[in-house]
Amino acid sequence: MSREAKGIMVNIIRIKENKKENILDLVARETTFTILLNQKKLVTLNCTPEKYKYLGLGFLYTSGILRKKEDIVSLEINKKQGLMDIRMEGTSLLPKDISSNNLWLGICQQAEGEGNPFSFIDTSLKINPGLVYSLISEMQERADFFKLTGGVHSCALADKNGSIILFSEDISRYNTIDKILGEAFVHDISTEDKIILTSCRITSGILRKIITGKVPLIISRAAPTDRTIELAKRAGVTLVGFVRGERMNIYSHPQRIGI
């Protein structure tokens, strides 16, 4: 999608070195995207207006609602209205109140409360520190819209050979994860030996999505929370943060970063 579709020019006053000037500046466009599930409104997301299909299916997948493609009976997307109408079979994990904007978190909590904790991620994936630094650097290089606006988050899916397979930007850090995992879901890209790269702070909500997506390693330029670290330890996820230059912090399962 072009930058004109994702952004809009606005008149601003810029002050620099005590000098004021009126200029046009590019800012990120924000729109709403509503998911209808079996003819009922499920959730409305605020997002960057692109990759609606991946966002919608990624949201359903990381929420635990959508498990396999065969569950989808029909799917229609109206880009102009910002609407996805999906009909599915097997939606037993839906909470009673499906209008909640915290739906995905509610489903995760409900599943854990019913004795269905996340499966432990066990994989032989191992990479060296140099690959960590180069992958983060490449993700930043690809973040063209962030460079123009400073108003979006970035996320990527990479393999152990150092190739970035998928990339997304969005005003919401949660949406970037959903777009990546949704695209992987649609195109049958295995994630069990892959790496998630992100520019954002890693919250437990972000990590829950990654665990549901079965990704064993997440790397971020930012920091995690204490709850995120504990969850990563329990789920078998290697959590790497504060990647700057040739420095990083490893918070859980360090065996996947070879020294």
Q: Main attributes?
A:
259 residues, alpha/beta, Ubiquitin-like (UB roll), Cytidine Deaminase, domain 2, 2 domains, 6-stranded mixed β-sheet, 4-stranded mixed β-sheet, 8 helices, 31% helix, cytoplasm, molybdenum cofactor biosynthesis, Protein FdhD, sulfurtransferase activity
What does this structure look like?
It is a single chain. This protein is α/β, with parallel strands linked by helices. It folds into two domains: 31-113, Ubiquitin-like (UB roll); 129-256, Cytidine Deaminase, domain 2. The chain contains eight helices and twelve strands. It has helices spanning 3-6, 52-62, 103-113, 129-142, 144-149, 173-186, 204-212, 226-235; strands spanning 7-16, 19-28, 31-37, 40-47, 72-78, 83-88, 153-158, 164-170, 195-198, 217-220, 238-244, 247-252. The radius of gyration is 19 Å and the shape is flat. It starts with a helix and ends in a 7-residue tail after the last strand. The model is unreliable at 109-116 (pLDDT under 50). Its main location: cytoplasm. It comes from Candidatus Infernicultor aquiphilus. Keywords: Cytoplasm, Molybdenum cofactor biosynthesis. It is found in: Cytoplasm.
Question: What spatial order of strands do you see in the largest sheet?
Answer: 8-7-9-10-11-12
In the CATH classification, which architecture of the largest domain applies?
3-Layer(aba) Sandwich
Radius of gyration: 19 Å
Number of domains: 2
Shape: flat
N-to-C order of helices and strands: HEEEEHEEHHHEEHEHEHEE
What can be said about the biggest beta sheet? Answer: 6 strands, mixed
* Tally of alpha and pi helices: 8
Distance between the termini: 40 Å
Helical percent range?
25-40%
Average pLDDT = 90
β-strand amount: 25-35%
